[in-house]
Every structure is written in C-alpha cells, then in structure tokens.
C-alpha cells in the first residue's frame, strides 16, 4: 500500500519502509521462477549457436543493462553481452529523458551492432511502454532475433510483443513514479541471474570459482592464483609459478597441472572441449 506521508515520517520509519519495500521486490521475483528458467535455457542455446545477449532500455533500465553487460567481460572473459541505452554513452551519466520517445533511434542503434537471428535482445522497461524499448523489440523480431521483455507491468505492450516475458509484480513505488527503486532492484536481480546462470552453464565457472576471470590488475591476478591453488590443491607459490608458465591463463594453468602437460597441449585441450574445464579434469 502506498504511503503518501513520506515527508512526515522519521528517518527511522523511512529506513524501515524502504527495507521492507526492497524485500518485497525480491520476493516478487519468486513468482517468475518458471519464466526465468525458461528464458535462461533459451539464452544458453543461443549462446552455443554463436549469439549475443543485448540489453536495451532507456533511463534507469538502460543503465542497469549496461552495468550487467560491462561486468560480464572481466568476470567471464566474454564479449557476448552488450548494453544499449537510449541516447548513447552520454545518457549513462546524464539523464536524457526525452530521447526515449525517438522510435527511429532504436533501430539505428541495433543496426550498428549487426544484429542477427542468433542474438537475444532483452527489452527492459518498468512500465513496459517505453517507445525506444518497444521499437527495439519490434526491429529485433524483424531480424528473427529472440526477444525477452522484463517489466513490472504484465499487461504492457512489451509483454505482448516479446517472445518471452519476465514480469515481477511491483504495483507501486515508495516515491510515486520513481522506477529506479523497487522496479530497479527487481530488474538488477533478474539480469544478474540471466547473465550469471547462462555463463555458469557455458563452462565459465568451475565449482563456484571464476575460472575465466581476466587478470588485468593486482587484485585479479591474486584472485586467479588463488583459484589455481584451490582447484589444483597446491600452495600459492606453486600456483603463482604455474600461472606464469601458463602466460596468465588461469584455465590453461589448471589443465597443465592435472594433465601434466605444457601450455600448447593445454590450450589444444581447451579448444577441443570448447573451454569446458569440467570435461577435462572432471
């Protein structure tokens, strides 16, 4: 139920209200478990066929898509996730509210990335009526790409025109019309699941470890060495030496250890198994 007296509430009361509302947003996703599972399986199939995941949205929804897509590269060493926002890069840092009404812009943005039938286009919109996002989904369907609509409005146009839907039930926001709140929370959690689970099932995770992490700084180099140490059950100094011999390729280092082989052989094994470590070392 909407509380219309926010300005009369104490800071403690407001904090409690926000916490309860955010928890409700998380719980609302549970009803979408079947839809989410179905969508993820479709995504996995498309990725195996050489497809990409493309998030499209305006405002908060667009920024959340970009956030998820950008984080996938260092986490999973993949370029398969792209985020497109109405208004381009400038709109990430500065609100450009009017741009979401530009219908022609969505098709133009998708043409730039050479959209194909193997791609998955995820339209993100709290209302499910954002013109830019709807235009993107319509264009994607013409290109025979798989389309997914994420919205908190189950009766929206986005739901009607998308191949698949994910619709957490969020009836209102604490601050009326501010979809960056509960709707944004639900969207972010859903995107986390779509990207993370599809990558787990694509061989990017071994046990619960980020075996495809890109060691581009000291922190990530330390993490990669730690992963080698854990999986190979060897001391950190030996893991570090193995990491160097593998030319900073975490997966290759692990294969070299278990198969007692050189880097060249390890890389060949990874290529044959499509980089699936589980198939190589069990």
Record the SSE blueprint:
Blueprint: H1 11-28, H2 33-48, E1 53-57, H3 59-76, E2 81-85, H4 90-93, H5 103-112, E3 120-124, H6 131-142, E4 146-150, H7 157-161, E5 164-166, H8 182-200, H9 218-232, H10 236-245, H11 250-259, H12 263-272, H13 277-281
Parallel strand pairs: 1-2, 1-3, 3-4, 4-5
Helix pairs in contact: 1-8, 2-8, 3-8, 5-6, 9-10, 9-11, 10-11, 11-12
Account of the 3D structure:
With 282 residues, the chain is an alpha/beta fold. It is 54% helix and 8% strand. The protein has 13 helices and 5 strands. The protein has helices spanning 11-28, 33-48, 59-76, 90-93, 103-112, 131-142, 157-161, 182-200, 218-232, 236-245, 250-259, 263-272, 277-281, and strands at residues 53-57, 81-85, 120-124, 146-150, 164-166. A 5-stranded parallel sheet has the order 2-1-3-4-5, with helices on both faces. Strand 3 (120-124), helix 6 (131-142) and strand 4 (146-150) form a beta-alpha-beta unit. Helix 9 (218-232) runs parallel beside helix 11 (250-259) and helix 11 packs across helix 12.
The ordered string of helix (H) and strand (E) elements is HHEHEHHEHEHEHHHHHH
Distance, first to last CA: 52 Å
Largest sheet: 5 strands, parallel
- Known CATH architecture of the largest domain: 3-Layer(aba) Sandwich
CATH topology of the largest domain: Rossmann fold
Mean pLDDT: 93
Query: How large is the radius of gyration?
Result: 22 Å
According to CATH, what is the class of the largest domain? Answer: Alpha Beta
Uncertain runs are none
Number of separate helices = 13
Q: Please name the fourth-level CATH homologous superfamily of the largest domain.
A: Glucose-6-phosphate isomerase like protein, domain 1
- Bin the helical content: 40-55%
Overall SS class: alpha/beta
Number of strands: 5
